[in-house]
Specification:
35% helix, 16 strands, Bovine Mitochondrial F1-ATPase, ATP Synthase Beta Chain, Chain D, domain3, Thrombin, subunit H, binds adenosine-5'-triphosphate, Rossmann fold, elongated, six-stranded antiparallel barrel, binds magnesium ion, eight-stranded mixed beta sheet
Length: 434
């Protein structure tokens, strides 16, 4: 394989010049130094120049250093040994335990397996979460995608942790957790919690948190998806894939292209970001061998749901749980905005006639409640017709009913967490609205 030399260094962008036989896009190059610094080829420029990303932010690189081709993409190890461990975007362990066996097979993170039969034809299987508001409005269906969306600090991470607590513990299969651009502390807390609850043996964790460079933050979701695909296709596993936070993936991709000098476009996002999001979402899919059920949080900048990136991520989701600051301020937890929360899976063939009909009634009651709130603000509750007053009272009860203490908050607020099975949840709603 040919050798190149470092031609220029600008922030995380390293250009490498080759005489001939230039490297390929997505190839890993290794600098000929002691630590064999890996560079990832992002694009090629005329004159046999490879534009590369400095994956480890190695500041010791200098012009004219020699660089070797590997002929290989960025690859991560795959195998059972990966379970129970914590990795960065390059598949390197970051849990302080033993290095991964170098004999493990490796897989390119850029070459997803070709898609086979779609999973959608098979019988839908509902996974109960024990969280009333989710089980009722956004049923959690195996192999589908669910988004938890909301502004800063409205409870996205807490709700996701509760889902991990309730669903992962029920032994559905293998859980993946991918931290993208969020707090480092949250990753450690999750690791400790899983270890205490002896759930590490069915979990894999990948982190590219806010302390990492944008290249790793942009790659970590794809790396985790690669290992999830391996367990789905080669081991026939059902996988729960949790990602916190998908918006940070968009942001990191954007930062990377800004440093590579691409012109940003719509709403300040770089041109290819939308296809990047779609490619990642498509990889979190199911086939006849196994399933990937994705649960993603989506940060909403400035509480603006019309942000183009937020809209784009939502396109690929089957259910969207919207968390709202206004609801949180009323002390309702989880702070779900019941009007804007929606799911394409709330249909009779998936949840059954009883659940479906109840959901139609509940939604119409909640719509009514919204319009009555405005009227009451002007004329007061006593002026309402008896029917409206009854509808208003029922809606208030419903809203209270969907509030529920979380097990993962027990240590913080001392209130015991609660899980409610689907049957009891439906009964509870029937009792309120009859
Ligand atoms: N269900 C809940 N019950 C009690 N408190 C909660 C709940 N959800 C959130 N909180 C409180 O709100 C805080 C912020 O929640 P969380 O970290 O989940 O927000 P976030 O939406 O993930 O924020 P960010 O956008 O900053 O990541 C928590 O630390 C906790 O104090
Ligand atoms: Mg969070």
């Amino acid at each position: 394989m040919s050798q190149g030399v470092i031609h220029s260094i600008k922030d995380l962008i390293i250009t490498v010049e080759f005489d001939e036989d230039v490297a390929e896009i997505n190839e890993i190059l290794l600098v000929d130094n002691k630590q064999k610094t890996p560079l990832l080829v992002d694009s090629l420029r005329p004159g046999n120049i490879a534009v590369c990303l400095n994956l480890h932010t190695d500041r010791s690189l200098q012009k004219a250093m020699k660089v070797n081709r590997t002929g290989k993409d960025l690859e991560i190890p795959v195998g059972e040994e990966m379970i129970g461990r914590m990795f960065n975007a390059l598949g390197e362990p970051i849990d302080g335990l033993a290095p991964v066996d170098p004999k493990l097979a490796r897989r390119s993170i850029f070459k997803p397996p070709s898609r086979t039969n779609s999973f959608e034809a098979s019988e839908p299987e509902i996974l109960e979460t024990g969280i009333k508001v989710i089980d009722f409005f956004t049923p959690f269906v195996k192999g589908r995608k669910i988004g938890i969306i909301g502004g800063a600090g409205v409870g996205k991470t807490v709700l996701m942790m509760e889902l991990i607590h309730n669903v992962a513990a029920s032994g559905v299969g293998l859980s993946f957790f991918t931290g993208i651009g969020e707090r480092i502390r949250e990753g450690h807390e999750l690791y400790d919690t899983l270890r205490e609850r002896k759930l590490l043996s069915s979990t894999c964790m990948f982190f590219g948190q806010m302390n990492e460079n944008p290249v790793q933050r942009a790659l970590v979701g794809v790396s985790a998806a690669t290992l999830a695909e391996y367990f789905r296709d080669d081991k026939g596993k059902d996988i729960l894939f949790f990602a916190d936070n998908m918006y940070r993936y968009v942001q990191a991709r954007n930062e990377v292209s800004t440093i590579i000098d691409q012109m940003p476009s719509e709403g300040g996002y770089e041109p290819t970001i939308f296809s990047d999001v779609k490619t990642l979402q498509d990889r979190l899919s199911s086939n006849e061998k196994g399933s990937i059920t994705a649960i993603e949080t989506i940060y909403v900048p400035a509480d603006d749901l019309s942000d183009p990136a937020v809209q784009m991520i939502q396109h690929e989701l089957d259910s969207i749980i919207v968390l709202s600051r206004a609801v949180a301020e009323q002390g309702i937890r989880p702070a779900v905005d019941l009007i804007h929360t929606s799911s394409s899976l709330l249909s009779p063939d998936i949840v059954g006639d009883r659940h479906y009909l109840l959901s139609v009634q509940v939604q119409s009651l909640l719509q009514k409640y919204e319009s009555l709130k405005g009227i009451i603000a002007i004329i007061g509750e006593n002026e309402l017709s008896p029917a409206d007053r009854a509808a208003y009272a029922k809606s208030k009860k419903l809203i209270e009913y969907f509030s529920q203490p979380m097990s993962v908050m027990e240590d913080m607020n001392g209130e015991k967490g609660e899980q409610v099975n689907r049957e009891d949840m439906l009964k509870g709603i029937e009792e309120i609205i009859v």
